[in-house]
Amino acid sequence: MLHLRMITPPDRTHAVLRLVENTVGTTHLVVLTGAALVPAGDVVLCDVAREAADELLQALRALGIDEDGAISVENIALTLSKRADEAEEEAPGEAADAVLWEQLSEATHEESTLTVTYVAFMIVATLIAACGVVLDNAILIVGAMAVGPEFGPLAGVCTGIVRRALKPAVRSLVALLTGFAAAITATTLFSLAMEALGLFHRSMLDNPRPNTSFIWQPDPFSFVVALLAGVAGVLSLTSAKSGALVGVAISVTTVPAAANAAVALSYGEVGQMWGSAEQLLVNLGGIMLAGTLTLYGQKLLWRTQRGRWSRTPPGTT
After folding, report:
1. Residue 32 pairs with which residues in a beta bridge?
2. Which of 84, 77, 27, 31 has the alpha carbon at shortest distance from 56?
3. Count of CB atoms within 10 A of residue 237's CB?
4. In this structure, what are the phi and psi dihedrals at residue 19, rounded to the nearest 5 degrees?
């Protein structure tokens, strides 16, 4: 269940109440007349099944509540209520399959904005990966995967494409490319500095590296893994079940590939540099392709489920 808190202009409160009452899957409706001060208006509270939330949010926005009032959405960890159980049963589909497009857009907007913190995380992750590829250390590679923040912009591009929102998609793409450019530049300088200190050597890059050689040797499996990672990442994001392991899966051949490209560039290893760059581009493209198709698939699936439910209302067989 989700909890909605709305500040509504008094002249639209009745319309909001009627909308909530007519939306299947809502309950616990509360009205506090004149309780809101900034902006001034009434406060309307209700709980809604996740499956019915997206349709309700779109209708509320159509009433202009987001412009002249406010709409806040919170996840409810626990609700002990028979009526809430009934509301979830009445709502179409399953909660895990429902996509809250407004929430998804907001989440990807926050995570795909080009900020100093985002660039810093990209640089730190790539520096850790650089140490990992030079030392052929799988533990450092996994550490870099966990730190890398690049899935935010990748998800932002996918969401922008599916929602036909050009500006968010371009903003996310700019953040993605700028982050990797800054990280590769910083890592190249870092590699030169480590060599000057005697901590990195060219022979370390040329030696056999069984744990990390896949990073600069792309093959068909690179694209397959990217597709699977893209599907896993988007499903995790839309179902609100994201976790650290998803970040690891997404970063498996992005941040490490960028790091290997930077180190190879510092030593003039053109073959490894281009191989790493190809690995990076293949995986970024595969993740975005799979993420976009997954969102389209979820959109189609949900539309089909709602169509079946509308033809078979609750309580009928």
Report:
1. 43
2. 27
3. 25
4. -65, -45
Looking at the chain, the number of H-run helices and the number of E-run strands are: 14, 4
Q: Give the model confidence (pLDDT) of 203-246 as tens digits.
A: 888 888 888 888 888 889 989 989 988 888 888 888 755 544 45
Q: Which token pair is 203?
A: 């022979």
The Cα–Cα gap between 46 and 30 comes to 6
* C-alpha–C-alpha distance, residues 93 and 212, integer Å: 44
Report the distance separating Cα 218 and Cα 261, nearest Å.
13
Two tokens, residue 77: 């960890």
The span from the CA of 242 to the CA of 257, in Å, is: 23
Does the pTM exceed 0.85? no
Tell me the three state secondary structure of residue 43.
strand
**Band of the pLDDT at 314, cuts 50, 70, 90?**
very low
| pLDDT (mean) for 50-73 | 92
Q: Which amino acid is at 80?
A: L
Q: How far apart are the C-alpha atoms of 105 and 99, rounded to whole Å?
A: 11
Q: Is 75 helix (H, G, I), strand (E, B) or coil?
A: strand
How far is C-alpha 61 from the geometric centre of its chain's CA atoms?
23
As a whole number, the mean pLDDT across the chain is: 88
Q: What is the pLDDT of residue 54?
A: 87
Report in angstroms the alpha-carbon separations of 250 from 61, 89, 184, 194. 33, 35, 18, 28
Helix H or strand E segment including 8: strand 2-8
Q: What is the DSSP letter of 272?
A: H
Could you tell me the two tokens for 149? 């923040």
H-helix or E-strand spanning residue 42: strand 40-48
- Per the CB < 8 A criterion, the answer to whether 49 and 91 are in contact is yes
Task: Give the pLDDT of residue 207.
Answer: 85
- The predicted-structure confidence for 11-58, as pLDDT tens digits, reads as follows 999 999 999 999 989 999 999 999 999 999 999 999 999 888 988 999
Q: Which two three-digit tokens encode residue 303? A: 């539309």
